[in-house]
Design goal:
- By secondary structure, the protein is α+β, with helices and mostly antiparallel strands.
- Helix content is about 25%, strand content about 20%.
- The protein has two domains: about 240 residues, no CATH class; about 120 residues, Conserved hypothetical protein from pyrococcus furiosus pfu- 392566-001, domain 2 (2-Layer Sandwich), CATH 3.30.1760.
- The strands form four sheets. It has an eight-stranded mixed sheet, sandwiched between helices. A six-stranded antiparallel sheet has the order 13-15-14-17-12-16, with helices on both faces. Strands 1-2 form a two-stranded antiparallel ribbon.
- Strand 14 and strand 15 form a beta hairpin.
- The longest helix is centred in the middle third of the chain and has 17 residues.
Length: about 400
């Protein structure tokens, strides 16, 4: 079975693309979504954060939220703001954030490949609380952000993609965060489809929950619908396939809400276990194996000891942090669920960590060195899971530009 399929995208007309396109739902809060969508009736936040159209305080997992999202999507599709391509197509999606540029092929990938391991995952996905399986949102909103990496990065792929980008784009705009988004339609996808037949596996870089939601939705619909000839639309879901070399991982920082000891006692406990350089001028971790800590008005550099455990996942900085500091010194045994630990995406910068501590929102900030693509692949190939919140990919895909629907 192929790992790439064209689809008939529902998409905004070009003059409305910038207004429709929104950040993905899981990088902003309900209140942030409400503010971003204010005065923008066609923002896709009305579909992926539909609680903003309901009374304040409505739980985001309430059935009314799912119903409102489905209602808003139907309204969008029936309006003159959206069109649906008459024939299945592929698309090329380029993002530019400062000097960083990444260009991927936007199509659909099969649920079966996610289920049988050809789409390789590295995160544990817990079922969402409340709500219903994703058919209420036709897999469109969230899955548009699912990001995979095309391993091959071959000259053939690059040549075909470059040829597409020589033409006029469907969309070309700069979002309010300064990231430029450019999308081209591949009028004849046959050559790209043929080139991707040589790709044996894809790696999930960002979007594990969307992949899992698509698989759960397909499982539900298989039970509800009689067998049919050919591949049902719910058996595929959208993804952008980027070459590994183009993906950019930022660090995923940590904050500890409350220190169980004084700052001095904490630093002394670390010095008994590892090398600590106090009061450093540069708060940026310089290399793998090094973190910086902010507490009590100062930054300190810490060298993490080697792991005493055996897998490639245990060798990650985030795992070594858990092994040598969070668990034995701070009593945080489950980083995934402990309410005393929170996570801060690297896009917010080290100043955000400092401000959280200075405002009293946290007792300790931990700045991490970014996980590498090579580490992610090594963990995935070993069939292991990454520790929670190990990678923060930037730039984020915009939701609402190319929507895959199944009725």
């Amino acid at each position: 079975m192929s790992l790439l399929y064209p689809f008939r995208a529902v998409r905004p007309v070009p003059e409305k693309a910038a207004e429709v396109a929104s950040p993905p739902y899981d990088v902003i809060s309900t209140e942030e979504a409400r503010q971003l969508a204010a005065g923008k009736p066609w923002s896709f936040l009305h579909v992926i954060r539909p609680e903003i159209d309901l009374p304040e305080g409505t739980d985001e997992h309430d059935e009314a939220v799912y119903d409102k999202g489905a209602e808003n999507l139907r309204r969008f599709r029936e309006s003159a703001v959206f069109v649906q391509d008459p024939e299945p197509a592929l698309y090329v999606y380029r993002q530019q954030m400062g000097d960083h540029v990444q260009t991927g092929v936007f199509g659909c990938v099969p649920v079966a490949a996610y289920e049988d391991g050809r789409i390789v995952r590295h995160e544990k996905n817990a079922p969402r609380q409340g709500g219903r399986p994703h058919p209420a949102h036709p897999g469109a909103a969230g899955a548009c952000r699912a990001r995979h990496a095309d391993l091959s990065g071959s000259a053939d792929h690059r040549r075909l993609v470059a040829r597409v980008t020589e033409g006029a784009p469907l969309y070309d705009f700069v979002a309010d965060d300064g990231v430029r988004h450019t999308v081209w339609k591949v009028e004849d996808p046959s050559e790209l489809l043929e080139a991707f037949r040589a790709v044996e596996r894809l790696y999930v870089a960002d979007g594990h929950h969307r992949c899992a939601a698509a698989a759960r939705a397909a499982a539900v619909l298989r039970e509800q619908e009689p067998p049919r000839e050919g591949l049902a639309e719910y058996e595929i879901f959208p993804a952008v396939l980027f070459p590994m070399s183009q993906l950019q991982i930022l660090p995923y920082h940590r904050v500890v809400r409350r220190l169980p000891m004084s700052p001095e006692e904490f630093l002394q406990a670390l010095e008994a276990r590892m090398k600590v350089e106090r009061n450093v001028a540069d708060p940026t971790p310089p290399a793998k194996g090094t973190i910086t800590l902010y507490l009590d008005g100062s930054w300190h550099r810490v060298e993490l000891p080697p792991t005493q455990r055996g897998t490639v996942a245990d060798q990650l900085d985030v795992a070594r942090l858990n092994e040598h500091i969070l668990e034995p010194v701070l009593g945080i045994t489950d980083p995934r669920t402990d309410p005393n630990l929170d996570f801060v995406g690297g896009i917010r910068g080290l100043h955000a960590l400092k401000e959280m501590v200075d405002r009293g929102e946290a007792g300790l900030a931990i700045a991490m060195y970014p996980t590498s693509i090579e580490e992610l692949i090594a963990v995935s190939d070993a069939g292991l899971l990454m520790p929670p919140k190990s990678t923060w990919f930037e730039p984020k895909l915009r939701s609402g530009l190319l929507i895959h629907v199944f009725d």
